[in-house]
Structure prediction request, 214 residues.
Amino acid sequence: MKDILDELATARRAMGKGSLPAGDAYTIEVRRRYEAQIDDVWDALTSPDRLQRWLQPVTGDLRPGGRFELDGGEHGEILRCEPPRLLKVSWLYGPDADAWPGTSEVEVRLAPCPTGGTEFELIHAAVVEEPLFPTYGPGAGGVGWDLRLLALAQLLAGGEIADHEAVEKSPEGREFIRRSAAAWGEAHLAAGGEPEHVAAAVEATTKFYAPDPT
Prediction:
């Protein structure tokens, strides 16, 4: 329990504003440090063999301008690729999402730390009309990224990576989800969210990712 909650605590979370080709956007932003060197982190982000271990299996034309698809239905285009420091992709979900291009993008920035290791920053921007936000707030995507970045930390540390579904159903994983949802609620409040809306969004997000056992 302590190890995965320590990983959760290493990240700094924020909600901000941005712009996308489709219009004004809100952003969820995660910053943290990995002990691994920058080339190792970059390889984990871009090598299909390693990407499937912490994110999902990926197929497609994995070069700038190419299109990719994850097993979970997420797909998009590789917009920028500047090894080993910057990767930016469009990020759409579901077969109907292509009708609304420019509505969601993910950007990852890496920088070597002066004391060793790598500073990692992920920014996920989505248009303000995105339908999940009124119910779930930034936790809609934020909790999912926290879970995946936990797996990335395990990969970079050379440890055993547990099955995503098993983690999410375990008592430790459910506590991780609960605290992640609360942390995104704090980021939402700091960005000016109404307390009642934030509280409802945190509750809805927690129930979505960790529904009550049946």
